[in-house]
Every structure is written in C-alpha cells, then in structure tokens.
Amino acid sequence: MIELSAIFSPYRLFILVMMAVLTLPSVGNAQPKGAIEPENITVHVGPHLIRCDAVDVVDAKPLALMLAQGATVSVTWSFSIARQRSYWLNAHVGDVVVTRVVTSDLISRRWHLHDPIAGTDEVTDAVAIAVRFLTHIRNFPLIDRSLLAPGAHYTVTLTLDVNDNKQPPAWWRQWVDFGAQKQTGTFVLPQ
User: Which end of the chain is less crowded, N or C, counting CB atoms within 10 A of the terminal residue's CB?
Assistant: First the structure.
C-alpha cells in the first residue's frame, strides 16, 4: 500500500499549487467586481507627438464612494508602446507611467487633485470633478514621433491600477496584474 504522505509531501504539494496558479490563463486579466470591460483607447498621430485619450477605464461609482468617505485614492496609468512584428515578439519601444492622486478633506468637503507629471495641483468642491481627474486622460503625450519607424504598426497598452492606500502594494504585483484594468490601441505611423 502506498503511503499518502510520500505522494503529497509539502514540497510536492507546493510545486503542484504553483504550477496550477501559473498555468491558469485568465488570472492575469481578471476584472474586479463592477469593472467596465476594456475598450480601445484612441491614439492620435500628430506632426511631432503621439497622443492618446483614455476615458472611463474604471467604474466611477466605487471611486466616488471612496472619496466621499474620506479615502485618499491614487491611480497609476502605465502606457507601454510596442512595434508589432509578425513572426517574433513585439519590439518594446517605451513606457510612460503617470500617477494621479486625490486626497479628501472631509472637514472642508474639498478634494485635492495632484499630478506631478502634468504639474496639476488643484482643489475642487465637487467629487465628480475629482473622479473625472482620476478616470480620464485626454490628449496625453506618449512618445516623440521621431523615435518611431515610418510605416510600422504599433500597439499601445494601458494598464490602470487603482490604490486606495489602505495597504501597500504587494511585491508580486509587478509580475501579476490581477485586478488591473487594461486597454489597447493601435496605430500606423504614416510614411
């Protein structure tokens, strides 16, 4: 008779669990409850810059509720630009990361909007304006056009991570984007 402790030793059980977790195809793209389905972002090719618009990436209702209750909410927008290739992995061109923070002041019923990249440091009385600040990016400059090859196809991938600052981000979040919102957009650089 085979002893079960020999088959299911802690080491083997750990390996089996890790293999099961790493092979699940949908874990990396799971959406939190109430999330909006990913839509394409709009990419604009200008004479000097590539710009993009991303609107309503996450559901605004939970953000409005958190801000109304006094939470400090930060949203990290991570843009990744890659040149598409048919028979090989896409060529990574660059990344742009923007963090926007809204701090609540329940005594004065105001919200402090802070974006160090754009130089935004404002105060608003309306929670709707604070939510729009966190969930909308319009005409955002991504990359200089001179860094891209004419006629090539490019993909812009947006990963959005909402943090209510209750606990620090886990160390494994840099490899697994569980719960992050994703959108993609494509463009062709004219000749």
Answer: N
Sheet holding 42-45, edge to edge: 42-45, 49-55, 136-144
Using CA atoms, how far apart are residues 110 and 91, in angstroms rounded to an integer?
A: 44
Token pair 């200089």 is found at: 144
The whole-number pLDDT of residue 11 equals 64
User: What percent of the chain has pLDDT above 90?
Assistant: 21
Mean pLDDT estimate for the chain: 77
d(CA 106, CA 72): 11
The structure tokens listed for 157 are 């991938």
**Rounded average pLDDT over 172-178:** 54
Examine the pLDDT at 5 and tell me if it is beyond 80: no
Query: What is the rounded CA–CA span in Å between residue 167 and residue 177?
Result: 17
From residue 86, how far is each of 83, 91, 150, 153 by CA, in Å? 10, 11, 17, 10
Look-up of token digits 């992995």: 89
Q: Kindly list the structural domains of the chain, giving each domain's residue range(s) and its CATH number in brackets, ordered by start.
A: 42-167+177-188 (2.60.40)
Q: CA-CA distances (angstroms) from residue 174 to 56, 115, 170, 180?
A: 24, 22, 8, 11
